[in-house]
């Protein structure tokens, strides 16, 4: 089966609706016909300062959420990035293949390093996309399920794969981004001109682990647009369009069907229904996450097994790379 790899940062107490609809749902679906490798990317997390105890806890909570959402550890390798040292090792080789100007063009770095209150910027934040390329290439992944904001990082990954292959001989599979239609960029509820993100104020971000009341309140307070008709119009009505998209993602009804359904009703009705479909979908995920976190020893066993499986693929790839670039093998 073709391989798939993706990763998510353990940098918040909960994943959010953008993570779920932009990426995690596709993680779950792709397991059916791919050999999947999914990692909690703690190496990426420390590109900005983290409290050690909080990071450790969030790594476990992240793994629990992924399992609760349907990542199946029988079929897929679910692991913590730092448990597989080959990521950092291939990351170094990839850094030596990346142009400084090429890395400087990454828009996410420019956004993150210039964001208000960002503090001093680390070199790790700068080379972050290069480590991401190593994550993907180590597993010879054919597909990488991500949201729209990762498209440029995937382009860099492909460029680095091409460069390595032409310099040292065919080594890496060329990965394709796997970006969903419709939900590739879920918008913030308070600032529907921006993607939903944990770095914006919490009121605009639906956390998967928020209780139903908090979620309903955030949706009720979502910024809508002038006018009163519930119709999709990404340019003129981004807020309403975002709510319709979210509704559609959970209810399975198309946006066109929803426009018909809401003909003659107002934004209040739309928000009520969005809150209902979202909270109904999240309730079982929250219950399952809590169950899994009640036995962290078992959770850690699942992650250890995932890391062992991941290393089984990552180690031979790294060995080939070390040999091709001319490292003397240790006796
Ligand atoms: P991260 O942790 O920021 O986000 C995890 C995934 O969620 C997607 N996403 C969104 N999709 C739609 N709408 C949104 N508002 C939204 N916000 C986030 C992201 O696109 C991502 O797919 N660099 C990655 C982590 C990473 C990775 C990798 C991904 C490290 N190594 C290898 C793929 C392959 C990141 O920061 O994701």
UniProtKB/TrEMBL annotation:
Cited InterPro entries: aa-tRNA-synth_I_CS, aa-tRNA-synth_Ic, Rossmann-like_a/b/a_fold, Trp-tRNA-ligase, Trp-tRNA-ligase_bac-type, Trp-tRNA_synthetase
- Which CDD domains does this one have? TrpRS_core
What SUPFAM superfamilies does the record point to? Nucleotidylyl transferase (SSF52374)
Catalysed reaction(s) here are: tRNA(Trp) + L-tryptophan + ATP = L-tryptophyl-tRNA(Trp) + AMP + diphosphate + H(+)
Keyword list, A-Z: Aminoacyl-tRNA synthetase, ATP-binding, Cytoplasm, Ligase, Nucleotide-binding, Protein biosynthesis
Quote the record's binding site residues for ATP: 9-11, 18-19, 147-149, 186, 195-199
- Coiled-coil positions are none
Subcellular location per UniProt equals: Cytoplasm
Query: What's any one GO cellular component for it?
Result: cytosol
Q: Which Pfam families does the protein's record reference?
A: tRNA-synt_1b
Motif 'KMSKS' region positions after renumbering to this chain: 195-199
The main place the protein resides is: cytoplasm
Give the E.C. number(s).
Answer: 6.1.1.2
Q: Does the keyword Thylakoid apply?
A: no
Name the Gene Ontology biological process terms: tryptophanyl-tRNA aminoacylation
Where do the annotations place L-tryptophan binding?
Answer: 135
Question: Which molecular-function annotations from GO does this UniProt entry contain?
Answer: ATP binding; tryptophan-tRNA ligase activity
Q: Which family does it belong to?
A: Belongs to the class-I aminoacyl-tRNA synthetase family.
The record describes the protein's role as: Catalyzes the attachment of tryptophan to tRNA(Trp).
The annotated subunit structure for this chain is: Homodimer.
- What NCBIfam families does its record include? trpS
Q: Report what the protein is called.
A: Tryptophan--tRNA ligase
What gene is behind this protein?
Answer: trpS
